[in-house]
Amino acid sequence: MSLTILFVCTGNVCRSPMAEYLLRSRADAGADLRVASAGIAALVGDPVDAGSASALAELGIDSSPHRARQFDPWEAGDADLVLTAEVAHREAVMGEVPGALRRTFTMKEFARLLPHVGRGRPAELIDRAAQIRGMYGAVPRALDDVADPYRAGPARAQATLGEIATALEPLLATFELEGPAAQPRLRPSPGPRRPLPKGSPA
After folding, report:
1. Could you give the angle at which helices 50-57 and 154-174 cross, rounded to 10 degrees?
2. 96 neighbors 76 (Cβ within 8 angstroms)
3. C-alpha count within 13 angstroms, C-beta hemisphere, residue 190
4. In 3D, which of 109, 102, 176, 159 has the Cα closest to residue 139?
5. What pLDDT digit, counting tens, does each position of 84-103 carry?
6. What pLDDT, on a 0 to 100 scale, did the predictor assign at position 135?
7. What's the CA dihedral at 48, 156, 182, 175 to 10 degrees?
8. What is the pTM assigned to this prediction?
9. Strand order across the beta sheet in which 2-9 lies
10. CA 22 – CA 164 distance, rounded (Å)
11. Which of 31, 59, 74, 167 is the most exposed, having the fewest neighbouring CB atoms within 10 Å of its CB?
12. Residue 157 and residue 141: Cα distance in Å, rounded?
C-alpha cells in the first residue's frame, strides 16, 4: 500500500521534523511510505532545534540533514494524510486547502480516531476517521496540541517527543507500518497526564 504523510507545525524545526524522523525510523524499510514536514511560519533553512535534535539522537536518529521548509498548499493537495502539531495548524492548512478537510487532523486527534476505523486500505481508513471525527474526536482544544519545545531545553524536547511517539503508535499499528527491527521506543514522558474533563470521549 502507498501512503504519503505530511507533518505540519509552526517553524518546522521541532515538532513536525521530530514526527517525520521518528516515523521514518519506526516504519518498515519495505513500506511504500513517503513522509515530509513543513511549517506554516517556517524558519526556512534552519536545522532541527538543538533540544529536539538531542532528543532524537537519544533514540539513534540523526536529524542533521533536515532544513526547515515553508508549507506550500500543493503539498497538502498531494498528501494522503496531513497531521499537524496543533489545532491552529490544522485550521491554517484547511484555510489554504479546503479540499484537504477530510484528510487533515492533529496528530493527537488522529490517534484517538484510529482505534474506531477498523481495517482496510489507507484511503478507506482516513475517510472513516473523517466520518467519525465529531463522534470520537471532540476534546478541549488545548488537549489536541503537542507542546512546543522550541528553545525550551532538553527536558521539554524529550517530553514533546514522548507526546509525538504516543500519537504515532496507533498509526503504526493500524496501517501496519512498523518494521521488524524498529528503533527502541521512547521512555514515557515525565510528569502527570492532564485528565480529560468529565464526560469527554477517551
Report:
1. 60
2. yes
3. 5
4. 109
5. 999 999 999 999 999 999 99
6. 83
7. -90
8. 0.87
9. 32-39, 2-9, 81-84, 104-106
10. 9
11. 74
12. 21
SS (H, E, C) the chain: CEEEEEEEECCCCCHHHHHHHHHHHHECCCCEEEEEEEECCCCCCCCCCHHHHHHHHCCCCCCCCCCCCECCHHHHHHCCEEEECCHHHHHHHHHHCHHHHHHEEEHHHHHHHHHHCCCCCHHHHHHHHHHCHHHHCCCCHHHHCCCCCCCCCHHHHHHHHHHHHHHHHHHHHHCCCECCCCCCCCCCCCCCCCCCCCCCCC
CA distance 12 to 92: 14
CB distance 120 to 44 below 8 Å: no
Cβ contact 196:202 at 8 Å: yes
Rounded mean pLDDT for each run of 10 residues along the chain, 202 residues in total? 93 98 91 94 97 96 97 95 97 95 96 93 94 80 92 93 96 85 48 43 36
Cell numbers that stand for 26 in this block: 519506526
Taken as a whole, the chain contains a residue count of: 202
Quick one: cell of 80?
494522503
Whose CA is closest to 168, among 7, 1, 41, 11?
7
CATH of domain 2-174: 3.40.50.2300
Torsion from C-alpha of 147, 153, 154, 160, nearest 10 degrees: 0
